[in-house]
Amino acid sequence: MIPYKIVRKDTDSVMAHILDDGNVEVHMPFDAPDQAAEDVVKLHLPNIEKQLAMRRKAIDTKTSINYSFHPLLFGKRYPIVKREGEFCEFNAKDGCFYVIPGLRQYQLKNFLKNLYTKIGNNVFSNQMQELSERMGVRYKHFQISQHTTPFGSCAARGELIELSWALAMTDKEFAESAIIHELAHTKYDDHYSPEFIAFVKAFCPDYDEINARAAEYEVMLRADGWILFGGKS
User: Fold this and answer.
1) The pLDDT value given to residue 52
2) pTM of the prediction?
């Protein structure tokens, strides 16, 4: 007999339900005897087992790591390699992401997001300081945004500049142009004035060409599952 959980509710019937997580519940009236649940499960056992097998296969397909997936890091893709150990890491020398065997896909995504956030805090904070000095502008606060897109935002002329953790997946030239763009907002609130454009291009002459890659990166992020096709990230 397969394990199941009895759920009593305001109903006139006794029915077995296969949940999305692969567990089985038997919904039944408050006054029905426990034996009624066992009888229903026995009666429909072949069909329940068939549905459970299909559900568990779907869960395994959805959660197991796809090792043909090569995550982006600064515009380049690197393979995922299984390695015994206590933690996952990106190894620049070996040119790969080392992951612990048995990891699920959502766990891999969490590891990557944490890695990109850490890189963003280290690399981009230094770039922010260097570029702001070169551009002669000031900002008050900087933080890594938990949103996948947009890649950056600036509030109240430098009160808070946020850069997306996903910016660590883009190439370094694109990331620098995004930082220059947000720092320029400490002086100009708009995106289209000749003054804003001239200021940005003074520090990033090829800005138009580089910024055009934003659409390409969004396509990659959707293809890799970081952005759902409904638009949510």
Assistant:
1) 87
2) 0.71
DSSP string, 117-161: HHHIIIIIHHHHHHHHHHHT---S-EEEESSSSSSEEEETTTTEE
Residue 183 tokens read as: 């720092």
Ramachandran class of 79: left when φ > 0, alpha when ψ lies in -120 to 50, beta otherwise: beta
- Domain spanning 105-223 has what CATH number? 3.30.2010.10
Among 33, 35, 53, 52, CA closest to 43: 35
User: Residue 85 corresponds to which amino acid?
Assistant: G
Residues 94, 100, 105, 111, CA torsion sign: negative
Please provide residue 61's backbone torsions phi and psi, each rounded to the nearest 5 degrees.
-65, -40
- For residue 1, count other CB atoms closer than 10 A to its CB: 7
Pairing verdict, β 80-82 and 96-99: parallel
Res. 58 pLDDT band, cuts 50 70 90: low
Domain range summary for the chain, segments of one domain joined by +: 5-61, 105-223
